[in-house]
């Protein structure tokens, strides 16, 4: 598997790609070309061209959840490419309207609109993209320190309700050296995601983790998260997007942390 960061908050010195507070990763595995999240704007298009990545060859688009910093770039993708055969994977709540106060924070298109642009697959259960890659679906709560926080509201059947972001999911790559976990924001809890990945894939080793963990404070939760990483002997840690500098620094004191930015390339 090859993975390239198309969109991240951070950029590297001497690599002249664009950044924005959003997420998009391009993944190649065998004959499959996968886009994990689409960022917020047309930055993914600009960066993909600069990296010589042809998004017209995409076979899959996977959405980690429905917030607009992970989904809004899709409309720019559709303006430039025709992808009638692309498979789109997401949780059933992903394209429901979401708001935080007066601000619209959800995807800029409905489930019905998504069905017109590709083969839409919505699932709470894990789905295999191939023998190596698994979309986890809905993540269960498996510990006592990652409580699901409510982020705004979600509209279900015409009713606005507190949103626990049950659509938050992740992608897992099963390598010869263990699991590599790819997340968007980990609203469901990064340690919950790790444990569920192990259950679904029947593998205890965690080779690495890349993505947002939605951790900002140096607090008890951070301490327990670091302990979880250590107990799982996570070999390579790539915290980004919604992880504060303070949290990354604390993780770096105990673990092998690599700085993430647009243009980062990994081969597994």
From TrEMBL:
Gene3D superfamilies: Ribonuclease Z/Hydroxyacylglutathione hydrolase-like (3.60.15.10). One of its GO terms (molecular function) is transferase activity. CDD domains: DHPS-like_MBL-fold (cd07713). Signal peptide: none annotated. Residues 21-213 form the Metallo-beta-lactamase domain. It holds the Pfam family Lactamase_B. This is Metallo-beta-lactamase superfamily protein. It comes from Robinsoniella peoriensis. The lineage of its organism: Bacteria, Bacillati, Bacillota, Clostridia, Lachnospirales.
